[in-house]
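Sequence in, structure out. Go.
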Amino acid sequence: MSDPHYDVIIVGAGPAGSYAAYRLASSGHRVAVFEEKSAPGIDACCTGIVSSECLESLGLHTDVTLARADSARFFAPSGKCLRVHTDKVQAYVADRSLLDSALAAKAQSRGAQYFFSSSIRDVVPGKESIQAEARCSDTGEVFTARAVILANGCTTELPQKLGLGKVKRFLIGAQTELETRDINEIEVHFGRKVAPGSFAWLVPVSQDRAYAGLLTASDAGPLMQRLVDDLVRKGRATDRHVKIRQKAIPLETPARSYGDRVLAIGDAAGQVKRTTGGGIYFGHLGAGIAAEVLDAALKSDDLSMRRLAAYQKQWKARLGRELRRGQLARWTLTRLSDGQIERVFDVLGSNGIAQNMVESGDISFDWHSKLVLAALRYGSAYPWMRVRSLLSRGGGP
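Output:
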């Protein structure tokens, strides 16, 4: 341990944590990143679908990706298929190990120090500094810093202990990697039997391998195993004995994402798309804002809660509308019966509406509110307009 004293300690070496480390180290601050895993991106429960805009914003290239996507098939509960496609790449499937390692390397190149196999057990704010109690390779250590950034997910006790509040509403994401046959497009499956109130997916990463996963409020493990068993039964996958990873995904933000000498970013701040559960893009936007606010606070030597409150104000101004509209979409989906989903598919499939929306140029992989605004052009045919009517009728299968 060359120096136990830093300007900033970052807890978690995921994309958000490493991006914040890169930005702060680039501004000349002494940064330490603590990661409980032995290397970046190990055993990440994440499909890793990112847009070209996201890769560019992160300063990365396609060499950290496994595949690209320019089409997708959506399946109603009955098996009815709706396919959309474009002439250009809409998204890439990132290799999370490569992506996380690349971001960590960028931060290290600017002087950030990384501690792997090291977990932060407690954080104790003080008037002049903040102490972080770490377990590094089975050895207890105490580090001090002027500020701490929490970038280690939303299920730890640290945010609540530090007075930021507790996230109480979650989805559970479950995913595995399979050896597959004839899966060459992204597939999204809806229905109460597959993923109640949400959806499941298949994402090809090579000619004979794919990620399979789902989002749900509970029972993610058994639902995931049933999905795998069904794929094997249909001859689309070869092995039902697979490792299933699970992750809590926040559906709300904590009361505060800032405190005295403390900021929370990424999942810890609820910076996650409510529609898909994706957090790489929103998390890195939050990390960039956190780095800007913290850089100014460090230079002025004012790390008070009052000064750092600017972070939450700025990131909510940037992401708040997207989170609210995503929450509305999520609320709606959880209340749709299979019969109502079938009728939404009928509307989207009629007269090529879904394909026209994709080709309009207004659809953004990262900014889902653009989808809402684009869809309004279709007036009474717009499915979300119809959804309100469907819900009021309580139409079932």
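Check: The chain has eleven helices and 18 strands. Residues 305-335 form the longest helix (31 residues).
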